[in-house]
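Researcher: Please predict.
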Amino acid sequence: MPLPQLVKNGEIDISILRKEYLKAVEDSKSVDFLLNVLKKVSSKNALVIAYQACLETLKAKTLWNPLEKLALAKQSQDTFSRAVALNPYHLEVRFLRYSIQLSLPSYLHLSNHLKEDKQMILTLLQKKDFQDIDKESLQIIIDFLLKDGQLQSFEKEIVQKVSW
Protein backbone atom coordinates (compact mmCIF):
# COMPACT_ATOMS: atom_id res chain seq x y z
CA MET A 1 0.00 0.00 0.00
CA PRO A 2 1.40 3.41 -0.87
CA LEU A 3 2.27 5.58 2.10
CA PRO A 4 0.05 8.57 1.11
CA GLN A 5 -3.14 6.51 1.42
CA LEU A 6 -2.44 5.52 5.01
CA VAL A 7 -0.90 8.82 6.10
CA LYS A 8 -2.44 12.15 5.18
CA ASN A 9 -0.87 15.41 6.36
CA GLY A 10 1.17 13.52 8.94
CA GLU A 11 -1.94 11.87 10.37
CA ILE A 12 -2.93 8.22 10.16
CA ASP A 13 -6.21 7.31 8.50
CA ILE A 14 -7.44 5.04 11.28
CA SER A 15 -9.96 3.19 9.10
CA ILE A 16 -7.16 2.15 6.72
CA LEU A 17 -4.88 1.28 9.65
CA ARG A 18 -7.57 -1.02 11.06
CA LYS A 19 -7.91 -2.85 7.75
CA GLU A 20 -4.16 -3.10 7.22
CA TYR A 21 -3.68 -4.39 10.77
CA LEU A 22 -6.16 -7.21 10.13
CA LYS A 23 -4.14 -8.13 7.04
CA ALA A 24 -0.89 -7.96 9.03
CA VAL A 25 -2.22 -10.53 11.50
CA GLU A 26 -2.09 -13.00 8.61
CA ASP A 27 0.93 -11.60 6.72
CA SER A 28 4.16 -10.86 8.60
CA LYS A 29 5.52 -8.76 5.71
CA SER A 30 2.81 -6.19 6.37
CA VAL A 31 3.91 -5.88 10.00
CA ASP A 32 7.28 -4.35 9.12
CA PHE A 33 5.70 -2.02 6.58
CA LEU A 34 3.11 -0.74 9.06
CA LEU A 35 5.65 -0.31 11.85
CA ASN A 36 7.83 1.76 9.51
CA VAL A 37 4.84 3.88 8.51
CA LEU A 38 3.91 4.52 12.14
CA LYS A 39 7.46 5.66 12.90
CA LYS A 40 6.98 8.45 10.34
CA VAL A 41 3.73 9.75 11.83
CA SER A 42 4.20 13.08 13.59
CA SER A 43 1.38 12.92 16.13
CA LYS A 44 0.04 9.70 17.56
CA ASN A 45 -3.11 9.42 19.61
CA ALA A 46 -3.82 6.58 22.02
CA LEU A 47 -5.41 4.42 19.34
CA VAL A 48 -2.50 4.71 16.92
CA ILE A 49 -0.09 3.89 19.76
CA ALA A 50 -2.20 0.84 20.65
CA TYR A 51 -2.01 -0.40 17.07
CA GLN A 52 1.74 0.15 17.16
CA ALA A 53 1.88 -2.04 20.29
CA CYS A 54 -0.11 -4.75 18.51
CA LEU A 55 2.28 -4.64 15.58
CA GLU A 56 5.27 -4.87 17.91
CA THR A 57 3.75 -8.02 19.41
CA LEU A 58 3.16 -9.49 15.96
CA LYS A 59 6.73 -8.65 15.03
CA ALA A 60 7.99 -10.37 18.19
CA LYS A 61 6.22 -13.56 17.13
CA THR A 62 8.26 -13.64 13.91
CA LEU A 63 11.67 -13.25 15.53
CA TRP A 64 13.92 -16.27 15.81
CA ASN A 65 16.09 -15.16 18.75
CA PRO A 66 14.17 -15.77 22.02
CA LEU A 67 15.85 -12.84 23.80
CA GLU A 68 14.92 -10.44 21.00
CA LYS A 69 11.42 -11.91 20.94
CA LEU A 70 10.98 -11.34 24.69
CA ALA A 71 12.48 -7.84 24.55
CA LEU A 72 10.07 -6.77 21.80
CA ALA A 73 7.11 -8.38 23.58
CA LYS A 74 8.01 -6.37 26.70
CA GLN A 75 8.40 -3.23 24.61
CA SER A 76 4.94 -3.77 23.17
CA GLN A 77 3.47 -3.92 26.66
CA ASP A 78 5.20 -0.62 27.52
CA THR A 79 3.74 0.84 24.34
CA PHE A 80 0.27 -0.38 25.38
CA SER A 81 0.75 1.26 28.78
CA ARG A 82 1.47 4.59 27.04
CA ALA A 83 -1.68 4.20 24.94
CA VAL A 84 -3.89 3.43 27.93
CA ALA A 85 -2.35 6.28 29.93
CA LEU A 86 -3.26 8.69 27.11
CA ASN A 87 -6.88 7.52 26.98
CA PRO A 88 -7.87 4.99 29.65
CA TYR A 89 -11.53 5.06 28.57
CA HIS A 90 -11.06 4.19 24.92
CA LEU A 91 -12.84 0.92 24.16
CA GLU A 92 -10.71 -0.03 21.17
CA VAL A 93 -7.41 0.70 22.98
CA ARG A 94 -8.48 -1.49 25.89
CA PHE A 95 -9.72 -4.20 23.55
CA LEU A 96 -6.49 -4.28 21.57
CA ARG A 97 -4.40 -4.72 24.72
CA TYR A 98 -6.84 -7.32 26.08
CA SER A 99 -6.85 -9.38 22.90
CA ILE A 100 -3.05 -9.31 22.61
CA GLN A 101 -2.51 -10.19 26.26
CA LEU A 102 -4.92 -13.11 25.94
CA SER A 103 -2.69 -14.50 23.20
CA LEU A 104 0.56 -14.22 25.14
CA PRO A 105 1.89 -17.30 26.94
CA SER A 106 1.26 -16.94 30.68
CA TYR A 107 4.83 -17.89 31.57
CA LEU A 108 6.01 -14.57 30.10
CA HIS A 109 4.13 -12.71 32.86
CA LEU A 110 3.14 -9.98 30.40
CA SER A 111 -0.63 -10.37 30.71
CA ASN A 112 -1.04 -8.23 33.81
CA HIS A 113 -4.03 -6.19 32.68
CA LEU A 114 -6.54 -8.82 31.58
CA LYS A 115 -8.96 -8.40 34.48
CA GLU A 116 -8.72 -4.60 34.46
CA ASP A 117 -9.16 -4.36 30.68
CA LYS A 118 -12.04 -6.82 30.57
CA GLN A 119 -13.88 -4.88 33.26
CA MET A 120 -13.30 -1.57 31.48
CA ILE A 121 -14.40 -3.06 28.14
CA LEU A 122 -17.63 -4.35 29.67
CA THR A 123 -18.27 -1.00 31.39
CA LEU A 124 -17.71 0.95 28.18
CA LEU A 125 -19.94 -1.44 26.21
CA GLN A 126 -22.72 -1.04 28.77
CA LYS A 127 -22.40 2.75 28.58
CA LYS A 128 -22.25 2.59 24.77
CA ASP A 129 -19.10 4.70 24.99
CA PHE A 130 -17.69 3.75 21.61
CA GLN A 131 -15.80 7.02 20.90
CA ASP A 132 -14.49 6.83 17.32
CA ILE A 133 -15.16 3.17 16.66
CA ASP A 134 -16.96 2.35 13.45
CA LYS A 135 -19.72 -0.23 13.30
CA GLU A 136 -17.52 -2.88 11.66
CA SER A 137 -14.80 -2.56 14.33
CA LEU A 138 -17.38 -2.72 17.10
CA GLN A 139 -18.73 -5.94 15.59
CA ILE A 140 -15.21 -7.41 15.48
CA ILE A 141 -14.82 -6.59 19.18
CA ILE A 142 -18.17 -8.15 20.05
CA ASP A 143 -17.50 -11.28 17.99
CA PHE A 144 -14.05 -11.75 19.53
CA LEU A 145 -15.34 -11.31 23.06
CA LEU A 146 -18.13 -13.81 22.56
CA LYS A 147 -15.87 -16.38 20.89
CA ASP A 148 -12.43 -15.97 22.47
CA GLY A 149 -12.80 -13.38 25.22
CA GLN A 150 -12.91 -15.80 28.15
CA LEU A 151 -16.14 -14.33 29.44
CA GLN A 152 -18.38 -15.70 32.11
CA SER A 153 -22.03 -16.17 31.22
CA PHE A 154 -23.19 -12.89 32.82
CA GLU A 155 -20.42 -11.05 30.93
CA LYS A 156 -21.52 -12.64 27.65
CA GLU A 157 -25.02 -11.34 28.32
CA ILE A 158 -23.65 -7.80 28.61
CA VAL A 159 -21.84 -8.13 25.27
CA GLN A 160 -24.84 -9.70 23.53
CA LYS A 161 -27.00 -6.72 24.50
CA VAL A 162 -24.72 -4.23 22.75
CA SER A 163 -26.27 -2.49 19.79
CA TRP A 164 -25.10 0.37 17.65
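Model: The radius of gyration is 16 Å.
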